Amino acid sequence: MTAGNNDHTTEDEKLGLSDRDLLAHATVYAPDLLRDQVVVVSGAAGGIGRAIVWLLARLGAHVILVGRDQIKLDALRDALTAAKLKASAHAIDIRDADAVSALFDQVWKEYGRIDGLINSAGGQFPQAAIDFSVKGWNAVINTNLNGTWYMMQAAAQRWRDTERPGSIVNIVVITTHGLYGIAHSVAARSGVIGLSRSVAVEWAPLNIRVNCVAPGSIVTEGWKVYTPEVRAAAPRSNPMKRSGSPWDIAEACVYLTASSGNFVTGETLTVDGGGQLWGETWTTGMPPYFQDN
After folding, report:
1. What's the confidence (pLDDT) of residue 125?
2. Which of 57, 200, 205, 243 is positioned for an S-S bond with 266, CB 3.0–4.6 A?
3. Is 169 within 8 Å of 118 (Cβ atoms)?
4. pLDDT digits (tens, 9 = 90+) for 147-175
5. Residues whose CB falls within 8 Å of the CB of residue 187, separated by 6 or more in sequence, listed in order
6. Contact between residue 209 and residue 183 where contact means Cβ atoms under 8 Å apart
7. Between residues 192 and 218, the one the model is more confident about
8. How far is it, in rounded angstroms, from Cα 79 to Cα 2?
9. Could you tell me if residue 112 is left (phi over 0), alpha (psi between -120 and 50 degrees) or otherwise beta?
10. Mean pLDDT of 109-130
11. Dihedral, 260, 265, 270, 271 alpha carbons, nearest 10
């Protein structure tokens, strides 16, 4: 569902897809594509993470739900199991490297394998960079960059030690065109992109693929942190003049995780309706200085 359209749904209904939607949404993939695979998803209860989880589970994977809120994770797991899909919930702080390591040990002990990791955890808040506090800056860097790295390294070490292949997909932001008002996240996610490209080469001998997906304007409940004016302008940030759905990102992640991505590594797949070719996005609203008189 796009933002800024003229239908009669409420604002909350426009902010992403419900579990019922995610269970029924059409997909291009065969229903047994990921049968018996085990895939870890961080940020599993978020808007994009939730769509990824539902699609993976519908395609036959056992999904390891990772996040910080056990109640939200349990509710999502219960919704999945009620639909006869496979999932388990694990609340950890990915900024804690020891907790991340313990999680991967536990999952490996219980299921004997991990086939994929999708890092969707992260967060930021719109603010002029000049006003960032040290605490605010560190919170975004530690989650978006350090936490992502701890998850990547923990997965890769276990694949190396067991001589099994693996796939990592990191959700990032678009860094090839103007994205302003979240400089801390741009810094962290740029680091993830560079890191992914580097280890994609280092880990190729281990048969570990590492890729990124860069969403453009995607409608989720996370939009609530932005002003109505910023949300209204979002569909004009790309030449398709609409916003995308979390399902668009989920299907991109499956493409890279499944056998369809077997010869793809070190890439950033941009899913933004052509926005990187089009213009700029101001999450804090465009300052008057840059506006036409």
Report:
1. 77
2. 200
3. yes
4. 999 999 999 999 999 999 999 999 998 76
5. 141, 145
6. no
7. 192
8. 25
9. left
10. 91
11. 20
Helices of type H across the chain = 11-14, 19-24, 47-58, 70-82, 97-111, 134-141, 148-162, 183-202, 228-233, 246-257
Our measurement of the distance from residue 124's CA atom to the centroid of its chain's CA atoms, rounded to an integer in Å, reads 13
Neighbours of 252 (CB within 10 A): 22
pTM: 0.89
What is the token pair recorded at 13?
């209904």
pLDDT tens-digit series, residues 1-30: 233 333 333 333 355 689 999 999 999 999
Q: Are 210 and 267 in contact (CB under 8 A)?
A: no
- DSSP per-residue codes, 83-96: TT-EEEEEE--TT-
Would you say 41 and 15 are in contact if contact means Cβ atoms under 8 Å apart?
no
Q: In what side-by-side order are the strands of the sheet with 166-171? A: 86-91, 62-67, 38-42, 116-119, 166-171, 208-215, 268-271
Using an 8 Å Cβ cutoff, are 219 and 14 in contact?
yes
* Residue labelled with tokens 């036409």: 292
Tens digit of each residue's pLDDT (9 = 90 or more) over 236-266: 888 888 888 999 999 999 999 999 999 999 9
Counting Cβ atoms within 10 Å, is residue 109 exposed (0-12), middle (13-18) or buried (19+)?
exposed
Domains of the chain: 28-288 (3.40.50.720)
pLDDT at 13: 38
161-165 long-range contacts, CB within 8 A, separation 24+:
162/108, 164/113, 164/207, 165/206, 165/207, 165/208, 165/209
